[in-house]
């Protein structure tokens, strides 16, 4: 059986090895449900939906999605976070010394979630035949969520394995294989163009939104607001005039709905990432109890000074934060002094152990007293404001851009604001860096905007460990900014064998 089929069809039951999202439903799913049975039984609809969201988290260090690998690789390949030189769970991504054979990235994990989404959509289609009105409503909601999750997955795959859209020759560059149903074992799907992929992503999200089957807000599920915010992000990444126009419009809809609000004080700001009561979090992957984390190598533990301390801020980021000692965001950075990570800090060039070095956005729910119980943020209102600011700026609407940007700047410190004469794309991206650090955005923000990533700060090492020359300063033209399709996938699929990313 070909590896891509393994990646897309493994565990044919809709519910497999489910550990996260406990508490979503009163019923406990089995570890595995036969395909034909699942397709016909309405009682398995909700457990199957639960399994879909479980996939977004990932089960352990080897199969992690948002629970570790995907989030970290969006940070440590940028210029505001780094890894120790040895022993780090993100070290291969940080060093950017990977080849087609020594790294797979999140390829198989993400396609496994897509397989679950496709199975759920197939199930919805079969169950809708002759279903009662109440069941039809439940089916419509499950279908919309499956489409939204599938869109998120394909978008993530394109971010990792394809050229940024603004540099793709209007989408003519290769994207990723698009799998709508369940392929047979003999299938050898090839890569679609990036335009075809984005069209598919936009279609899925648009249909999910227009179905009116999603809740306006929802803890742990993709709501209508979350789908709009995600679609705005997709359009922002697309980057053309149409994309920026729609990104601004959709972001404005989410903001003007007043269904969410920014945290405005230290206490509520620190709770944004850990408490279900936060009104700023639009969509997060939920952990419900002390047994409900991906594993001890999950995101919070890897980043924490009390865990593996495998990723921390750079000197560049530290000095940018030092521009304002009263910035509220200092309260989600942890000092290294008095922790077991102190020794690591002492070995950094020009660093002192009292510096606030580590991301503290994942402290865990207060009631559960374990960092690994932390919900995993996917999109929150602050990003929506920043997306709107960037889109408006690129459209030449500087007054709107300034207004949205200053909402975030003033939230960080009410005494601060950006003057009209200081408004630039670089200033917007700098604010995105400060606000979204540790949430997996910085690398993609730089690449999609054609910016140079300077990882040796001001030409000097700047706390960084050993890096190959090409990984010290680069832009989107550096071939390793795009991951290779895994060697095992290439070997198994003759079509993909002819479509490997350049340089590998």
What is the mean pLDDT? 88
Q: How many DSSP E strands?
A: 8
Q: Please bin the fraction of helical residues.
A: 40-55%
Instruction: Please name the CATH architecture.
Output: Alpha Horseshoe
Continuous helix count: 20
CATH fold field value: Serine Threonine Protein Phosphatase 5, Tetratricopeptide repeat
**Largest sheet, spatial ordering of strands:** 1-3
How would you describe this structure to a colleague?
- By secondary structure, the chain is mostly helical.
- The chain has a single domain, classed as Serine Threonine Protein Phosphatase 5, Tetratricopeptide repeat.
- Helix content is 43%, strand content 5%.
- It is built from 20 helices and eight strands.
- It has helices spanning 3-9, 35-40, 45-57, 69-76, 91-95, 107-127, 133-161, 194-210, 224-238, 241-256, 266-271, 299-303, 315-321, 342-346, 381-394, 398-412, 425-436, 442-448, 487-492, 494-497, and strands spanning 81-82, 281-285, 312-313, 333-335, 356-359, 376-380, 453-454, 473-474.
- It has a two-stranded antiparallel ribbon with strand order 1-3.
- The two termini are 25 Å apart.
- Residues 1-32 have low confidence and may be disordered.
